[in-house]
């Protein structure tokens, strides 16, 4: 059931299809391909467990709604990134913790199995220094991360198990408050702890001890305040945006941006459309999608045949109720350029939320990634600046966590 729910959550966030104009000058494309390019938030592990789906094959955002696979990584010039173990928030009970733990461990093993099945193309990375030689060898970089620490239950020592598996970045909460921290989007709209819980502070200490980078995306501003005050290493926002551009709880304001940068942290820019601009409601579409996802949740095990049936229904919904108001590539770049203006190219990176809701009109999947490089060049950023934005900054934060552990 939980796997079916996860697939439903992944499909729910995916966007309808539109044409993607992804041409860039040849010189820009060649430069982009030479960069070490890492995305700090890939929800693609949700695709790995889909029946009949393979990371080795080229899929299409216009057909099965997935956005990342090996052929597109090569064409779009994505060397890899942080592959997320995402667990939806469930009840704060012993049974809830147990089910979440088991799911997260299995999802982590799916990532490890992807690497083990194709060592010619994928390599597990556990240190900041691993990424460059992997990319130089023409292989894809696989760091592991946790989105939502809920599966750890009330035993922060369980983080060591995930660390040993390969996890090097971990977020505290997701769409709702949990045992560790307040969420920025809890349905109650009221804080539970006013930041980190006492258990959340224990978890932060364990992260610092192990060398796991704290991720504040999805957590409240007060959680970010606690992390900046208490963490012995820089803090990462793996996929977030700017409140100055669009005042959404998932985004952060300029004061927090500056505080993050002052402690050596980095904001990785998100491409989740609903966080980039206000979207006009589309009630017919939402009703139809709600019924589709309810049908998916009813299936304890998704078969290839059932998945094909659900994809056909999703395509029909897109045909009948198309989204007429979507965030665009320009909206995404507005957020990125604002963050760059506020904190500079040493504190901004890229975490687009692929296969978890990311993607905008004009940048539907990773084939369009060279457009970001082109836009940054046009905005006047140097090649060295762009190299930092694509990977240098997030690797610096990871290296700082390693160094603190060593001390």
TrEMBL record:
GO terms for biological process: proteolysis. Keywords: Signal. It comes from the Bacteria. Residues 1-21 form the signal peptide. One of its GO terms (molecular function) is metallodipeptidase activity. CDD domains: rDP_like. PROSITE patterns: RENAL_DIPEPTIDASE_2. The keyword Signal applies. Transmembrane segments: none annotated. The keyword Signal applies. This is Membrane dipeptidase. It comes from Sphingobium amiense.
